[in-house]
Batch of 2 targets.
Target 1
Amino acid sequence: MLQSLWSAASGMNAQQLNLDNISNNLANVNTTAYKRTRLEFQDLLYRTYKAPGTPEADAQSSPTGIQVGLGVKPSATMRDFSTGSFQFTNKPFDMAINGEGFFKVMQPDGTIAYTRDGSFRVDFDGRLVTSDGYFMEPQIVIPRDRMTDSEAITPDGRVYVSLSDLTNAQLVGQLQTARFVNPAGLAAVGRNLYAATESSGDAIEGNPDSQGLGKIEHKYLEASNVQVVDEMVNMIITQRAYELNSRAAQVSDIMLSQANNLLSLSI
């Protein structure tokens, strides 16, 4: 019965972490290009009272044995990189990737990070940057003498700008995106950014709409892929599981108390 207390406690801890994960998904329901995460679980070790195949009477063997598990543990958080819905913004430097791929940005420490958030802006030098001021990599510089709302970004990532003294639009840069063999292995570092890890593998870089990379949707942003109804259902299931584990701990405590009282009476 003492083991049942620890098993119930492991279940309560696991469901608490599950609720933390669900709460984070719901908190980011309006975060641009946010990808929901799912917590996965594994059962722990087993106490074997009788191993399967143990010899029995009459030269028979036990077909199943007796094993009791010792609880549960969270094993991984899986990030769902399915594409969210596209929202038209009509802003000249908003972009969404329709398919696989990430935009590359330069962090202040000089390392490359990856993002699906395509809400870029122009800084005082005309460079495309994130809302935190991180440069797009490779850098795209928009000339100061461009005509208002004259930008055009093609599906393959070419950036054109109409200049005030020229008739035809001029090519000012080429976007590059990156994809990974195992995007679920990327490490989330906040600010809608991901860092490559050994699990994700090296980035496979190229122009959009080539080498398996998705194409650019200009003046669109990708919404979060969190489904509120699904998360609410998961929250209810998590709450019920937590309550049942709590009830198991209470019943174990009652049974231990009764056993203790019987032992006291027999002394």
Target 2
Amino acid sequence: MQEKNVATVPGIDQGLTRALREKGVLRVDDLLRAFDENSLGEFQKPWGAKTQKVGKAAEKILRFARAISSGEEKLLQTPALPSGENYVMFDLEGLPPQLDELDKIYLWGLQVFGKKGGDYLGKIAGIGLEGDQAGWHEFLAAAKSIFDAYGDVAFVHWTHYERTKVAAYVKRFGDENGVAERVLKNLVDLFAITQDSIVLPIPSYSLKVVEQYVGYKRSQSEYGGDWAMAAFIKATETSDEGRRKELLADILTYNREDLAATWAVFKWLGTKKVN
């Protein structure tokens, strides 16, 4: 089965996959039979023109491999989730430099979940520098309205992307009222919390994989970051106003469901306690 392929173990990159295959380690169970933490830590993998040891990553790799092999999750510690009654789920959609010279965030998505949930706030940026700046300021206004209504609430996101981009936009356009600084202070990376607290029998810790594991289901048959980028580019290039609105509405639905999926994982993690 594909999920038993050694290349699907989180932490095993392409170079390590090639090196393992040269040793006849093709499947997850092969890896578990061939290595313990010490021997895998000493194992050499390609690194540019040279090689380097797997090192400390060996422990985490073997944890994931055992979970995939057994099909059972393993709780390492109680997830270090922030406490509160309400939480902002936060997700950005961006165009990389090869697609837009600005390296631009084209959609800033926020929504409050919890005891007193709020409406979805998806702010789509316009074309060009002025549109990019307008999108940033609309995001700051939305974040300020949340702080005004909910106080010092956590902004929960998946991976480091949101932190990196908010910091970059502060440098690009400034943070006159200190809202972005407050957002940065309150950011909570749910991806890191998940990886640190629980080993899952899945081939990836991407949100799209983890959300399915916890039972979240989307309404769209097509979705994903690459899909959203392509849809946004089509929306900016089409002269059909009806088609543009349809594409943007689909992108907003995708982003809104990203937020709902993040909340679903957050709630699921909240049920996990070390006895």
